Amino acid sequence: MKLSDALKVSKRSLFLAAGVVAFIAAFVWLLATRGPLAPVGVETTAVTRADLSPAVFGIGTVEAQHAYSVGPIQAGRVLRVWVDQGESVKAGQLLAEIDPVDLRQRAEAASSAAARARQAAQAAQAQVAEADSRARLAQANSERYQALYRQNFVAREMADSRRHEASAATAALAAARANATGALREIGRAEAELQGIDQLRNSLKLVSPIDGVVTAREAEPGATVVAGQAVLRLVDPARLWVRARVDQARAQGVQVGQAADIVLRSVPGAALPGKVVRIELQSDAVTEERIINVAFDRAPAQLYLGELAEVTIRLSGLRDVLTVPRAALAQYSGQTGVWQIEAGHARFQPVQPGMQTAEQVQIASGLQAGDRLIVYSAKQLDDGVRVRERRLTPR
Amino acid sequence: MINLARRDIVHHLKSYLLTGLGLGLLIGVTLTMAGVYRGMVDDAKVLLRAVDADVWVVQQNTLGPFAEPSSVPDDLYRALLGLEGVVQTGNVAYLTMQVSHQGKSQRVMVAGFEPGKPGGPAFLVAGRPIARAHYEAVADAKTGFQVGDVVRIRRNDYTVVGLTRRMVSSGGDPMLFIPLKDAQEAQFLKDNDAIIEDRKRLEANPAVNRPGQPGVLEAVQAIQTSSHKVNAVLLRLQPGFDARALADTIVRWQRYTAYTRDDMEEILVAKLIATAAKQIGLFLLILAVVSAAIVAFIIYTMTLGKIKEIAVLKLIGTRNRTIAAMIMQEALGLGVIGFFVGKFAATLWAPAFPKYVLLETGDALRAFVLTLVVCALASLLAIRAALKIDPAEAIGG
Known about the structure:
By secondary structure, chain A is an alpha+beta fold. Chain A has three helices and 24 strands.
């Protein structure tokens, strides 16, 4: 009886002790893994040698290299527009006409003025002939009287009078000739005026400067346009490119001739090959972006102007350099570096980063190949914090 | 001398342990409530810690960018970078919005920052930092996004390239970091219908669309659709430089409002979450008082339930000191069991809460001391009752 009683008691105490020990163990485990005393979980990797091929990313729009706006050189009313948006046109093709208003009447007036000038010239020519004949007669008379005077058949007064008549007739001839020349010039003037009006009439016909496609029809018949305002806009569809904007901070290293991938917003899955053909000297100072023109290697059959495009320019890379994942690079007390594990504690190691790609960064100095370092951590790290390697995200 | 308490406990082991367990769960709830309160305050500060900026420059006379809307020009940083002591500046834009992912929408705080400058996530748990100038995102793991997921913000798709942790807004919404220019666009860009309506309105306005003045309308439209505003500019200073003095200089000469890190913490904790924190704080207080009262009552009634035994003990001549020690030890034992069970439970279920629950060691120690004090006080009441018991009750009952 006594023995079994004692056994019972000791069995209970045993259970109790086991329970207490189990509880304490569970408690300590919980605090150490999930509570405030738990070490920070980290994932590590090693410094490796790899080739780096960095890329620069920008977005832009599909634009024409040259855009033409065709409009009148002076204010006028649109009479007819012969082409519409999307139509292909040839160089020299008539695109639109501006209403000439009174230009035809002015041309007629100029034309009759020219005809009248020609007639006036004919009259002047006849006058010259007449004056010439008079002058020759007067000259002959004068010579004759001179001979008679020398033989003393006539008075000197008579001879002088004849000589004067001859001079006067010669002067009249010169006047008639000058008159005739003036009449000829008048013809030139009137004809030039007529030509001017013709030219003006031609300028009212808007013709295409290029073989291209109409992108906009901005005025309809009846609309009044001012000098220089576009009636139609044209582009050369063979010369389309992407005008991409690249953050100035990343634009270093972009050069003409580098290969690029162009992804149009309408075809997000496909990258079209292209090439950097121009880097504009003038950057955008407000958005702090450099403007880079990227041409298609082979332009797609149909392109739409103004479509958004993503451009990835491949820069020249480095071969066989020390690299770490970019996620490992950290800032701590004003320095750039990586975190390493030293006897279970985090230690900051300043490094000199070099070229960066999306995934990797070159380590210029501060680490050796094969060094282990922390890539991911479950918390913000601090010098001396206890860390333990474990998976942070299920994979 | 035999230990009466041990004997008594062993005698009523099951009921003693169950009482302790019950008390423990109650203490666990109280601890969790304290954790909820601490977590809320910590949520408000976590962004400040991660961003690690010494001075926040915001619109004049606002408490921006979290407590009030604030907008400053995005080239202000150039002027600020010229001030003595400023090492780094970073433009940031914050907006709380729903983003859609696989048809489900998720509430997040979108933070626009310039990679390499203050304002980004401090560490990652997966993936890589943002590398491109557009359309990449780093998400807080709480959003449930995975690396490689595509989320839609306004009209653009963003690829999640990295995951971080404990990056929440003061309201507890997980954060989604995207490049600044995209955030500016998301913040100020209207929807397409509104843009087209606005264009039509402008076209109908004779002041900007006057005949004979082509180009004015296009210029006005272009101005309307571009945005060069950010919500705040973050400054990092040279080590040891006086942030207060610099903030005062900015307020006085640049005509913007500038907050130091402490000011900002004050705004976030004392202003933004003040009411919510007071609400939870008061509830925590009531819960603590109620828990203490329940602990006291349980110990008191437990003692009263042993009146007969105590009367017998008295009858056989047990000293008062021995009886008092028994009651006191049992009460403290309950307290210790209750505290550890409570701490265990709170630590176990804390990570399951949707918002962050911060169990501070200091709080736990305070709770431990408080539990023991309450147990001791309650046992004093019980001892007083026990000593008054008439030994005759042992026979009379």
